[in-house]
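User: Hi! I'm working on a homework problem where we have to compare a predicted structure to a textbook description. Could you give me the structure for the chain below?
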Amino acid sequence: MKVAIEHVQLQFIKEIENNVCSLQVESNVMCFALKTGHMFLIDLETPSNVIKYRFTSLSSPQEKLLKVWMDPSATTLLLKTNFAKYYVLAVESLGKGNELVTPLKKLSKKNRDVITVTWQGKYEFVCGTAEGKVYIVNTQSENSATKAYSSPNSIDGLEFVNSPGAEQCAFLATGHTLRYWSNPKDPLTTLTELPPSETEQFEEIEQASSRKLAFFNDTFAWTIDSGTIFGTVKRSDNVLKSATVLLNVELPASHHRVKDVALSKYHLLLLRGSEILVINKLNNEVVTQKTTWNQGNEKILELVVDYSQSPPTFWCYSTSNIYEIVLEEESKGIWRLLNKFGKYDEALKLPDLAPAEKDFILEQKGDYLFSKKDFVEAARCYGMSDSATTAEVALKLMKCSDFIALQTFLTAKLSTARQKKGSIVQITLLSDWIVWNFMQMLNEVDESISSEQDDHTLETWRSKKEHIGKELMAFFKKNLEILDRDTVYQIMSRQNRKLEVLSFARLINDYKFVLSYWIRSKNWYEALKVLALTQDLECVYKYATILLINSPDSTVNTWMQIRDVNPCELISPLLTYFANFQKTHSSLDSSRPVPNYALKYLKWCIQELDAVKLTPIVYNTTIFMMIAGFDAKGRESEIIEFIEEHSGYFDSDFVLRLSIKFKRFKTCIYVYSWLRLYEEAVTLAIKMDLLDDAKLVASSSDLDGNSKVRRKLWLMIAQRIIKQQNDTKQAIKEILQDSNGILGIKDLLPLFEEFTTIANVKDELIKGLERHNSTMAHVSHEIENSIKIKKEIVEDIETLKARFQLVEPGASCDCCGRVLQTRKFYVFPCGHSFHTDCLVREILKSTDHALRSKIESIQRSATKGMTSVNLKELDRLLSTKCCLCSDIKINSIDEPLEFDESERQAWEI
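Assistant: Happy to help. Predicted structure tokens:
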């Protein structure tokens, strides 16, 4: 620790010599006063800015300032004069010309010599007098001074500690007695109603005006004739009895007595004459002894401390000078003493500890706890220290047979190793060792559970197992990124800890391991849950076969949830399942339908997925399962419907071969027909006695333009029907009716046998002749109607040739408004009339592009002189329709209106 006493340069104050009466430093603001009433205020953040104030309330030249007190927030000053008058001064008003000074009249009376003050806020303080009285004063009122305590001896020290985070306490030093209150209330209640928690009497001290009681950071110090008493209030009992007494004889010899005391975190500062003694509170040794620089007649008055700063700042002053006491590296070397006295936690909190020092303290603390058989806490300390080797400490803890302590040590050691670089091997070994220990602990608990018969004890073991499991998971989560996963798997697998392996795999998102575990365990439900969660396509394809065979319904539903699955990759597992399905269910009662989940999935893919993902193999496989299924014979209509709906996506030759192989003749007939092999379709239908299907093929709309083929197909069908039925008359009737007029009786006659009687065909021959007669009559009627229509057309043409339109004399053009007869014009049936050039102009401005382009073409040809103008064609175009009441004008409704500028100007006023 280094101590320096620095002189504060105040040469700019001429009248300071032997004139300083008081100094206060609070909240980094310094205020010192001269006896003459001059006061100086310095913000130590900006020491060059000094506020000077002349206290003008001194009544006579003989009245002098004696003492100044400042509240901890540096907002209020309490002033005392030698005439026992007291004033309150607002700090913020200094230097502004309107200083706020409040005299405390009730306090300014005889026998009220205030020698100690403790503030309770900005506007209230508690003060003690040399006459042994304690007053509570409110600075906002001139007449506020409530007496709270009375003693025959002077009040030499007074402290009320009620700041947040500090130990609540109060001290009162009077005469040779020190009183202490723990958990005090407000000052008035405490001093008037509550008895002290402790009272200690010491050797009577001499009267003095300087402060002799100090308090800081839960520690107190009080000077007496024989020495200095100091202690801490953190102990609940015997605060005063357990206090330490530093006798004056333990200090270096001096003719002066201790005049004042101040506290730092680990030291006492004693003012003795003109020297400053710094004493270590832990061993009462004098750390340093410094003497202030002063003149012969200069008198050192007091110590002053600003505890609002961190660390606190220390000052002392004389009648002519101010000094700053600078403490540097206060905590240096303190750790050894704290460690010696067993205050390990406090030693570890010291700043600037070297790593080796910290390790040593932790090891010492561990040894102490180990000796107290607190193995777990000892292991934690050992784990944070590098002083002892891992093997040495581990063996020490293993001899105690305490797995928990060993785990604690290894865990702490692992945390320490993680903070260092280049400790990968150590981290791996420690983490693997911890996992192995967890497995051993779980195995021991399992053995105890299996052998335990008492229900209560059994429940205890189960709770312990649950707790160990939670600790294991917490360890995994905290150290996930440093674990060697393969080694952890190996350790747990060799210990046969299946659930723990599974939990670890889930924690590291190793879902492939989890999935393989559930599949090995034949837990298809859990396996599919993992598959649905991960949606890993590689796993979908890898385990498709085993999952589909063992749990087809759930597997297919899971695949449906994974939208990125490519059904083409699943064709092989689907076919394997189908083969197994056929083998298993073909011998069962066909009346009970058994779902084919492979077919269900393929149909879903075709219906729901994008066609880009579906190749012909998907459609071919679907049709294969539909055709090859053991129950397909009665469901050929579904097959045909599917083929019809998805035609073009599959191999028709493949489907045809399948249909023939599995004797799905209706499907085969449909495919023949779809391939336009109508004769083969009808031939197969006739061969398999499927005449209804043959008739459907012959009646197909695809043959509407090919009556020759259709007639041939019906002849094949008719021949089969005539040969098959014994009732010739009924057969003829059926054929003629079903063929819908394609075949007539004359087409059927060559098909009959030579011995067929005329009676069998008589009725149909008569009906045929009647139909022929009706057809001829209808044709004759149509010819007559045509002749009549021709005559009417000729008459209309003649009428049109004779049609005319009257034009009144003086009629005007409907476009330009000028007389119509002045030049060539056109008159339309609607009554509108136009000059030829006006009509051409209107048509060229219209939106009838077809008519406009033809006229423009004629104009270009006439301009170039390429060909002679076809006047008849031009006349025909111009007379096509009226440009006012036809679509020429109607189509221009969305065109903007155009105004003649000259006409618009003519209407202006």
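For your comparison, note the following. The chain has 33 helices and 30 strands. The first strand starts at residue 2 and ends at 7. Good luck with the assignment!
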